[in-house]
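User: Here's a chain of 255 residues. Predict its fold as tokens.
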Amino acid sequence: MAVQMRDPRKAAGLFEGWEETMIWSCLQNVMGSVYADSLEHPTSALAVLGDFYFLAGEADRELLDCGIGKNPFQIFVPQNEKWAAFIERCFGGKAKRTLRYAFRKERDVFDRAMLGRAVSNLEKGYEIKRLDEELFWQCRELEWCRDFTAQYADYNFYQKYGLGAVILKEGEMVSGASSYSGYCGGIEIEVDTREDYRRRGLAFICGAKLILDCLEREWYPSWDAQNPWSAALAKKLGYRFSHTYAAYEIYEGGI
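Assistant: Prediction complete.
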């Protein structure tokens, strides 16, 4: 039987070597949850944070059931091909296999001068600022930027484990980069731009600002790309590509 772990650290060995900050958030008990087949000696585990479900250890149907139906959109990430085959067998055509792009977790690769120039080159008429409490709650009301703050219960929690930068036009948010999630020592970056303001370089400027703010705090600004566009933006900001990996997107869950 799959159970939620009171002490997620007991499942840490199953995720060893998996450089994914959302897993670290779960194992540190900062955000998310960890489920396993045993509270004391797990052989299978599931780390859940927001839309993401990371499956480790031995393939276990009950762990899949833990995540089903909780969100209308889910991303299942298998640790290995055994888990991948198990997901495909259980979900069938409901699971869309995709490739995501991982980047090296390197702290000393960022060109601060270049990032600073990017921020200072913001066109007249736009304003860039940190994501404050008022903007935090505004994000909850706007579909395009909801994930900037969705995983944080309130602004106090965001202040402790989150960080963001947004660009305003006539007082309205039009682009931003914020923490999808946080852990002890860094954040996982979420970047987006309102559809009518895309392809103007605003996401690059927001990303540059957020990276600089993270470095100032001695936090690591982790980047994981969903698509080639996001991967290209990451490289432009200074990240170095590591590898692609498989994930499964599932809409309206259910097996």
